[in-house]
Design a protein that fits this description.
By secondary structure, the protein is an alpha/beta fold. The chain has helices at about 55-60, 135-150, 160-165, 175-185; strands at about 10, 15, 20, 25-30, 40-45, 85, 90-95, 100, 110, 115, 120-125, 155-160. A hairpin with a 5-residue loop joins strand 6 and strand 7.
Length: about 210
């Protein structure tokens, strides 16, 4: 894709000016000389299908009370993070500098390269895999995706399901890749094969 020049003052050491910052301890350095060229889109809600709380923020900062809900028991000791998290109302959070390696993709492969965390930026959407997402989330996602591409040599965007097939299924069939493509203006070649085909998924009525 053709990238516009980076806007002055939009980034500071990998931190995006318009995101709410909550620093996660779950990150590390990227490999020396690596190129950040991939965006990975995820979905998450804690507990699954429950929206509006701060459990995701707690998870990414190792503060989640795993005794507060039976489903959380499987998360004990888990240390994960993402660079960005977009809530249902479109609010944007940042947990890790994009200059660093967030722990979002796990075992993953893209275009023959393993360990996608090394060369990607991870963006979590508040949602349940397979279900729909809010228009406000797409607007924020398009905005932050474009901003990341202004700062880093992004060439592709994929879902967690595409870089960890069979192991992960998010964001799932409810995610509208064509809406993101139109909003971002990126060419179809930047997207996973086939995601721009077929009818668009239905979006739910606003929940905020």
């Amino acid at each position: 894709m053709t990238l516009p020049e980076s806007l002055p003052g939009l980034w500071q050491k990998g931190w995006y000016r318009f995101a709410r910052v909550l620093r996660s301890p779950n990150f590390g350095p990227r490999p020396e000389g690596g190129c950040i060229h991939l965006l990975v889109v995820h979905s998450i809600s804690l507990p699954p299908g429950t929206y509006g709380g701060d459990q995701v923020q707690q998870l990414f900062t190792n503060r989640l009370d795993c005794d507060s809900h039976p489903w959380f028991d499987q998360l004990r000791g888990l240390e994960v993070s993402a660079h960005f998290y977009i809530q249902r109302n479109g609010e944007l959070w940042q947990f890790v500098s994009c200059d660093d390696r967030a722990w979002h993709a796990g075992r993953s492969t893209f275009q023959g390269r393993d360990n996608c965390n090394d060369f990607s930026v991870g963006i979590e959407l508040e949602g349940l895999e397979g279900d729909g997402f809010e228009l406000a989330q797409y607007e924020t996602l398009a905005s932050i995706s474009t901003a990341v591409a202004q700062q880093y040599p992004i060439t592709h965007v994929a879902g967690h399901e595409h870089v960890a097939p069979g192991r992960k299924h998010d964001p799932g069939k409810g995610f509208d890749w064509r809406l993101l493509q139109r909003a971002s203006g990126w060419p179809p070649a930047c997207f996973p094969l086939g995601v721009l085909d077929g009818p668009p998924p239905e979006r739910p009525a606003p929940t905020w």
